[in-house]
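[agent] plan:
  1. take the single chain provided in the ticket
  2. run structure prediction with default settings
  3. attach C-alpha cells to the ticket
  4. add a short note for the reviewer (M.T.)
[agent] executing step 1
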Amino acid sequence: MLVVLAFIIIFHITSIALLFIATIDNAWWVGDNFYFDIWRTCVNTTTTAVCDEIGSNNNSFQAIQTIQATMILATILCCIGLLSFVLQLFRLKQGERFVFTAIIQMLSCLCVMIAAAIYTSMHEEFHPNADIKSGTFGYSFILAWIAFAFTLINSIMYLVLRKRK
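[agent] step 2 finished; step 3 output follows
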C-alpha cells in the first residue's frame, strides 16, 4: 500500500509541475522567429527578442483571459488536491477517503481541458499574421494536454484508492 501511495504522490507532483510549466512558459505557439503563450507574444529580431504582453487591443482578448484563468485555476486546484490528499490520508476512515481529492482533481482536469480546447479551436484568431499562422503548437501546449491526461488518471486513481485497505 505504501508503494501505491508513493506512486500517487509522485504522479500528483508531476501533474502539478506540468501545469506550472504549461501555464508559465512561453511556448504555446512557436515558429522559426516567434513564440507565443497565453501571456505574451515574442518575435525574434536579428539581435534580441521583442516581447509584448497580450492586451485588450487583441480581438480575442476574452478568450485569452479565459485560458489564463482556467490554467491558473487548474494549477491551484491541483495543489489543493495534493494538500487535501495528505490531510485525508490520516484524518478520514476508509471508504470516505480521497473522494474530496478526486473531485478536486476532476475539476482541475476539467479546467485544463477547457483551456487547451479553447486554445486549440481559436489559435488562428489569436495570431492573424500570415507568417505567424505557419507556426506549430509548442511544448507548453502539449504539456497542457498531458497534464489533462495526468489529472484525469489521478482523479480516477483516487476514486479507486478510496476503497483499498
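[agent] step 4 note for reviewer: The longest strand covers residues 40-44.
[agent] ticket updated
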